[in-house]
């Protein structure tokens, strides 16, 4: 592959930044400075150093993003800012968000270029848990809680699968669901006679949103987190 693509894939910057850095002599291949961005390298065997650090090529990359409200979960959009616009400094091509959150929903979003992993995580048959913090228009009543826990009619063929409710305060709770229907949490609360006024995803499967990650910030998953995601899919 081209040297500039290799370095972009490593998440070291946009293609144009990387090209400048290569021309400025910041990159060596097998110990020799290379100033041509288009030079081909063998990512399996060549020793590629950027600013004195060796980089290996990763087949796939995995980022955790703390999605803020106001951006859409798409790869591109003509009018709206997308979650991928927040990762603009990552030069890697082919990234996409795993699943969707509404424009006004915040929280955990996994961004990757690993289609097989995304497919598994989103597969309806896998029933991967999604945990949300919900703030409600009015305190949840015991009847509403029981309905959510049993399954509610949101206008689909079947009732929703039983959800787990954990009360935080009267009008704040966490709701864990194992499906991913369009606007599912909002529709479930509406169906029981309440409304969601704020929604944040805290967890997907075994992967928790890092509480230290500020809104709009992102970072690569650690090896441990990636193993947790893989363990989710093996269940
Ligand atoms: N359920 C919703 O209603 N909205 C989301 O963004 C996610 C789950």
Question: What's this, in brief?
Answer:
The chain has 6 helices and 13 strands.
Q: Strand-and-helix sequence, N→C?
A: HHEEEEEEEHEHEEHEEEH
Biggest sheet layout:
9 strands, mixed
Q: Are there runs of 5+ residues with pLDDT below 50, and where?
A: none
The fraction of residues assigned to DSSP E strands is 25-35%
Distance between the termini: 36 Å
The helix/strand class is alpha+beta
Report on the structure:
The chain has 235 residues and is α+β, with helices and mostly antiparallel strands. 23% of the residues lie in helices and 25% in strands. It is built from six helices and 13 strands. Strands 5, 6, 7, 8, 9, 10, 11, 12 and 13 form a nine-stranded mixed β-sheet that branches. Strands 2-1-3-4 form a four-stranded antiparallel β-sheet. Strand 1 and strand 2 form a beta hairpin. It is elongated, with a radius of gyration of 21 Å. The model has no long low-confidence stretch (mean pLDDT 95). Uracil binds next to helix 5.
Itemize the secondary structure elements and their pairings:
Elements: H1 3-9, H2 15-23, E1 27-29, E2 32-33, E3 48-50, E4 53-55, E5 62-67, E6 96-97, E7 106-112, H3 115-122, E8 130-136, H4 142-150, E9 164-169, E10 172-177, H5 184-191, E11 196-204, E12 207-208, E13 218-220, H6 223-234
Parallel strand pairs: 7-11
Antiparallel strand pairs: 1-2, 1-3, 3-4, 5-7, 5-13, 6-7, 8-10, 8-11, 9-10, 11-12
The chain binds uracil (URA).
Provide tags for this entry.
6 helices, binds uracil, elongated, single chain
